[in-house]
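Re: Re: ligand-bound prediction request (bumping)

Still looking for help on this. To restate: I need the protein modeled with fe (ii) ion bound, output as structure tokens. Inputs repeated here so nobody has to scroll up.
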Amino acid sequence: MSVDIMSVAPLGDKKNSDFFDEYRLKIFERRKKSGLEDLLKNICALVVQVETGDAISYLEELYLMTPYRLLCTYLNETHKIYFLESKPEFPHYIVLEPLESSFTDDLTRLNMLYPLARRKPNARYVGEVFAVDDLPEIRKLLESHNIRFHYPDETENKFFSNPHFYFTFPSSITGNRVGYTPRGSYDIQAMEIGECVQLTGAETNRLNEADARAREKGAVPLILGVDHMATRILSGEREDAILEFLTMSNYYFWGAYNIADQNSSTNVNRNGYVSDDKISPAKVFTANNTPSFVNSFENLPMPTEDFVRNFGRRMHHIAYEVVDGDHESGEKNVDFVVATLKGFGVNFLAHVVGECTDTPNLKQIFSKHSEYSVLITEYVERCFGYEGFFTKSNVAELTRAAGEDERYHHGNVFD
Ligand SMILES: [Fe+2]
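Reply:
Sorry for the wait, this slipped through. Here it is.
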């Protein structure tokens, strides 16, 4: 049964302004009246760009760390485009690799503004794509709500000029784009993405070997789909980031929690039309409670503000759900998954946080960020049927670990 977005009360203890509450409801009302609510469906793809020459290494990493496997590869005028799938009902994962290392587009220019992002100027989470009914109507409605789409001649990236996708301009609040594609024809073959190409024998061997390693240890079948994606934004833009995403999607604001220990808040938006978040993952925004300059009065922790100053507003991590239960080794599944991935050479920030003794709870961990995508991977196990989305104590520990790692690696971040 779907959530009634007009009447559902947001959860959490982070205080929102009257402005936020007023416009949250106005946006929902307009979505319903205009027809947007019915035309927008699930998130059907996540799009990530990597540097030229990094795609196969990134795919190897995804093979070891996630359930995503390559379906097909395309070539257009500017990019190689890799489509990966986990389960057919979960979003695809699309990896864009520029053909030339000198490739530059608006996302490169965005990365170049920030001291740590400019080391991998083309590596960036781009955004998510929604499956929709009536693509031209979606664009017309969203443009009438002042959502800015880019025109094909406004970007050098030919993937965004495809007539079967419409992508918005990168948000000035989050750095993310939102894409839309027709639900009925979300058929990769029909999307005219480019010429279908084969990997070289050596590339295929690398992926097959990664797949065999992952299978042999038995950790990958325990990693389900994407649970949520978390974007980091500036303190003062928290409410705007949520309202902007609600304007552009069929998601609702589930709730916001104050993570006092890390001087930040976690703001969760979910698709109320799916029974399983992995079909259309939750969209999370993390913001500091105070901007860095005011924070200097109290000198509280400010890992979120630091991240944005170092990397810009952007996606910080993608979380995968781990099957709840005990592994035959006697460990909880998430502990087994982490131990196995460590054996593959994957590095993690600190340790698994949260206890799963005999009551419903969450166990979570962050990997170090990928050298290829700059994204952290989170693993989350909801033990004994834990129904909540997160716990404040876990979020505080994870945020602290990510902040410490970033400080440690400042100036040395990709070593
Ligand atoms: Fe998370």
